[in-house]
């Protein structure tokens, strides 16, 4: 039951070209910094990434993007990244932009074996009707647009069908993980990481602290170890190395 592997490099060594990745975190909060860096060094390319956003210029998933290793992004927020905008508008990157709550539920649904679900979110917009630009041509025209989705009236409300997301590999970060893979997330890192972890056929967790199996009280477990396949123990320096998207300060009088 010991799922701890020797290094991040070993954990991501078998990620293949063309893989679909689900990546945890929100902005730069709670992202798997070390696993992303290991994947950058590993060399896998032509990746499809499902994540709340695609990092920022020079950090997080932005590093894979700058290296042109990402082919397609499924996300709910695409700000804070100039290279992302450049690649998308130049036709170098395909982007499926979906509502944030819908993304979280699509990841969770994929993780628990639900093929799809109906939601009123997006009714009356291109989310349901189709026509959202997914990929541009070099001349600025739309080369590929989103298709219309199935709409039904349920309980008197129009609702649109959204499909669950199942990733080949999920990369997440947790505060405390035991050797069996049971995870505890800290504060806002709990927003996307559990759903991302559930959606992966192979889920890799980088842990700020690894403890023996049984040391985490069952009521404290946010993600059961059955969803986790590999655990990477971070060093104290790696665990403390965190950044934010922007820092704005003012001089105090």
What topology emerges from the helices and strands here?
Elements lengths: L3 E2 L2 H4 L8 E4 L9 H10 L4 E4 L10 H6 L3 E6 L6 H8 L4 E4 L2 H12 L4 E4 L6 H4 L3 E4 L5 E4 L5 E4 L2 E7 L3 E12 L4 E2 L8 H7 E12 L18 E4 L2 H5 L13
Please characterize this protein's 3D structure.
- The chain has a single domain, classed as Glutaconate Coenzyme A-transferase, CATH 3.40.1080.
- The chain is α/β, with parallel strands linked by helices.
- It starts with a strand and ends in a 13-residue tail after the last helix.
- Helix 5 (100-111) crosses helix 7.
- Strands 1, 2, 3, 4, 5, 11, 12, 13 and 14 form a nine-stranded mixed sheet that branches. Strands 6-10-9 form a three-stranded antiparallel sheet. Strands 7-8 form a two-stranded antiparallel ribbon.
- Helices cover 22% and strands 29% of the residues.
- The chain is built from eight helices and 14 strands.
Gist of the model:
With 253 residues, the protein is an alpha/beta fold.
| Arithmetic mean pLDDT | 96
- For the termini, the CA-CA separation is 57 Å
Looking at how many chains there are and whether they match, the oligomeric state comes to: single chain
- The CATH class: Alpha Beta
Give keywords.
253 residues; alpha/beta; Glutaconate Coenzyme A-transferase; nine-stranded mixed beta sheet; three-stranded antiparallel beta sheet; 8 helices; globular
């Amino acid at each position: 039951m010991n799922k701890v592997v020797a290094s991040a490099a070993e954990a991501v060594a078998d990620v293949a070209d063309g893989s679909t990745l689900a990546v945890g975190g929100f902005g730069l909060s709670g992202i798997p910094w070390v696993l992303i860096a290991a994947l950058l060094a590993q060399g896998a390319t032509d990746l499809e990434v499902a994540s709340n956003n695609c990092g920022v210029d020079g950090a997080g998933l932005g590093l894979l993007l700058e290296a042109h290793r990402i082919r397609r992004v499924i996300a709910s927020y695409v700000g804070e990244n100039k290279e992302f905008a450049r690649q998308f508008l130049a036709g170098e990157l395909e982007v499926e932009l979906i509502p944030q709550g819908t993304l979280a539920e699509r990841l969770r649904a994929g993780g628990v074996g639900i093929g799809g679900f109906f939601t009123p979110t997006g009714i009356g917009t291109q989310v349901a009707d189709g026509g959202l630009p997914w990929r541009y041509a070099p001349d600025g025209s739309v080369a590929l647009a989103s298709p219309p989705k199935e709409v039904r009236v349920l309980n008197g409300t129009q609702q649109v069908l959204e499909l669950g997301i199942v990733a080949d590999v999920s990369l997440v970060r947790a505060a405390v993980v035991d050797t069996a893979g049971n995870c505890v997330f800290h504060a806002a890192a709990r927003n996307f990481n559990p759903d991302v972890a559930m959606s992966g056929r192979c889920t890799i967790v980088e842990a700020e602290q690894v403890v023996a199996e049984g040391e985490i009280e069952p009521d404290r477990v946010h993600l059961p170890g059955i969803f986790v396949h590999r655990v990477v123990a971070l060093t104290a320096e790696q665990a403390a190395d965190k950044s934010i998207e922007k820092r704005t300060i003012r001089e105090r009088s």
